[in-house]
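ARCHIVE CARD
Drawer: 12
Card no.: 0347
Subject: one protein chain, sequence and derived structure
Cross-reference: see card 0346
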Amino acid sequence: MGVMMDLLADIQFMQPLWLLLMPITGLLLLYIHLTKHTPVQSLTSWIYGLARDVYRHPLFSSLKPKQATTSAKKRRRWIFNYFNYFFLFSCISLSLAQPFKIGQQLPDPPEYRDIVFIVDTSVSMVLRDYLVNGIRTQRMTVLKNVLTHFVDQLEGNRIQIIAYSEQAYTLVPLTTDYELIKFQLQRLEPASLTGRSSDLGRALLYALQPYKNIPTRQVEKNDNSRPVFVMLTDADRPVRDIDPRVAAEQIANHNIRLHTIAIGAGSYEAEDKENISLIYHPTSFYLLEQIAQQGKGQFFWAKDSDTLRDALRSINNAEKRKVDTPPQFIQQPLYFWPLAIAMLWLLILHTYELLFSGFKSNQTDVSSTAHTQRRSS
């Protein structure tokens, strides 16, 4: 008994209002009986009448032997028909209510975060102060290769790429189309679109622009719907029209964390003596540390490809957010069981009436034959 109660307790309904059809059906049948004072037609006869037309000879009723029907038999017939109708419509109402059983819990949604990469494309990104397999390599080449290979590890995150030098522009909007992101990353070239120098402050304010519609006082501290900004730059003699530290503070006030990754060497010792077409300047670690501090983020130095990859991985793991959703469970539909029971019950009724009618016919034929033989004798 306890097991049965536990099973029933697990059953829920998606459309429970359809259960009202059961008492309405019962009351309607009682009303018909009390007002018409006639027994309710049998269920199978009513269904057959809906399905087909039956034509009979006007004298058909005179061919059937008339039998007196007692009040007790009428009452039993009415109760039997009433139960059949009520049981059928109860099964239909149960099916329409769409019962289901709670199954196993679905796995929680994956942790993810919107990441906005702010990539420096100024002319200083052509400086070759990285050694890859003993060969001097441009800062931009190392940055593009590492980002391109790292995108595959950011599955589930939406990624945006903002390229900047003197001006900033959106290279890729927030998307999960990682093939598009990798394709667009390969198109990045130093000083190809927006000038030679780098304006960090203007780039940060450009990235913040879509999120400035909510006033600072309304931004909650635990609002995880905000993205995370990651600035990759060498901060090589940046333009100071807009102080990037003030821009970073504005970003932090909008509950957006800003991380900085220094691209390039931090001293003049890494200067490429063979490449004298551009004056060499090391990366400004001090400025990038201050920007990260004002942006409530962390500062990383990409000494080589491996450290750049580790920095990106650390940022991704630290900034993942879990979606706060109620637990989801598998719903096992049960609506077909009441329908199957109703069909089985109709089959039983039909079989019973066929057998019972045949038995009564045989009895009538036997009694008629005996009566004829007695009269002839």
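Annotation on reverse: Residues 259 and 297 are 5 Å apart (CA to CA). Residues 361-372 have pLDDT under 50 and may be disordered.
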